[in-house]
Amino acid sequence: MCEHFVARAGEPFRVDELWPLTEKLERFGIAGFGWGAGWLEPDGRLGTYRARAAFRDDPAGRERVGALETTALLVHLRRPSRLSWSRLSDAQPFADPGGRFVFSHNGELRESRRWRPRFRAQGRIFGQADTEVGQRWLEDNWRDGEPVGHVLAALHDAFGGQANLALLAADGTPHAYAGNSENPLFTFRLGTVRLASTGIYSLDRSLFRYVAPSATDRRLVPLRSTVTLDG
Fold this sequence. Notes:
By secondary structure, this protein is α+β, with helices and mostly antiparallel strands. 24% of the residues lie in helices and 32% in strands. Strand 2 and strand 3 (46-51) form a beta hairpin. Helix 3 (112-121) crosses helix 4 (130-141).
């Protein structure tokens, strides 16, 4: 039940340029149980921030992350499937320990219970959310050089369920996979920034009425496909 988006531009932009969009996405997407972000640092590393507080209730986090300049960004706004999944260890996005990617998910990874015991036995599970289980699978099945769309589709095949996936790779490329028929994925532009965003669980284009009315170049991402945002 979460919402998320990825963004990219050819030149660095201040992250808080996208805070009006983020505020409305949280409000109309009925999120508010935590938020987080991943971004490309000037030195090429991936930075992350995660909070239990809602975006609207975390002014210090908004200010800290918003002051950054980047060319690639991932933002996740939480509304967990089970409200007990609200610890910081459940917050998104998740960062790969090897620095290869940052990952988030919207919807439900149906088969997470089947995979969880394996990763718990390895001492790699710290929370309750299904996204963390998907993260561990992705860490094990990531292959440098393999198209990201292939590995995201394979993750969805392995877990099933209604699942939109977002990933920011170490090379600064954002990817968004559309796998949730209840929450469509759209691409669009806000000025010089290209975005792919979930659609506030509305099976129409209400995203552009309530969240991003000034968006241009609006497109629906077909189910079972991945969009990659280049610079």
